[in-house]
Amino acid sequence: MESANRDSADVPGLCPDCGQSGVRLYRVRATGERFWVCEECDAAWRPGADRSKFDTDLSALLPDEPNPWKAIERADGPRQVHPQQALIDLAANGELSGLWLGMHRTDALTVVDAPHAPASDRVVTAGDVSLTFEADRLVGIAVRLPLTGIRWPGLMSLSSSPRLTPAPRSEALKALQDVNVKPLPDTSPDDRTAEFQAVGRRIRLEFDQDLLSAVSASVARS
What are the distances in angstroms from CA 181 to CA 18, 103, 119, 200, 216? Predict the structure, then answer.
């Protein structure tokens, strides 16, 4: 079983717990920490653990995550990444470098290293990222994109996830069109702004001299 202990991305294998061939290498989006996990039964193995026998499970490995699958991503080998993947992830999925719309306030503040922000603060700004909360849930993520470089706060600065960039306006708009994010009804993109909708979300892009200068995603109001 020598190959079962290799911590490289090219050695998937059978799960000793469920017998399925779903063991893959994953990483935590916010920290880059890697481990093996069975996509069928959630059995998990820490780096160096003997994958021929049960080690732990995903919930035990990430006990502070209410939904651990939301906090991790596949790390087994290269993947084709859209140049504006971070924009797509935020618009289509409400996710950005360890944050996601709907997560608990405490978890979101930990990601941006602002755990002691007063509970009365509906909007908390850290670096170039602003978070909006409602009833202890994250309902809005906004990011400024200065040409001098984005100041990513806390764990976001360590994340290996794709990064937002001041992309050309045409490139940013095409990225959202490619994943069928629809323009907000009764609006049309102009030189300064563009607003879109996805399932349960609204997305707003702002432009400065034909470059993307700010992005925000928020929970849609019914």
Answer: 38, 22, 33, 12, 14
Other Cβ atoms closer than 10 A to 9: 14
Token pair belonging to 113: 């290293």
Rg value, the chain, Cα: 19
Contact (Cβ atoms closer than 8 angstroms) between residue 26 and residue 36? yes
Between CA 101 and CA 90 the distance in angstroms is 9
Which helix (H) or strand (E) segment is 68 a member of?
A: none
**Per residue in 161-195, pLDDT tens?**
889 999 999 999 999 988 778 888 776 667 899 99
Calculate the average pLDDT of the chain. 85
Reply yes or no on domain 85-219 having CATH 3.40.33.10: yes
Report the residue count for the chain: 222
Dump pLDDT digits (tens) for 87-106: 998 998 899 998 999 999 99
List helix spans (H) across 67-125: 85-88, 105-111
What residue spans define the domains of the chain?
8-74, 85-219
Q: Which neighbouring-strand residues pair with 218?
A: 140, 202
Provide φ and ψ at 58, rounded to 5°: -60, -40
Residue keyed to tokens 């039964």: 41
Structure tokens at 222: 């019914």
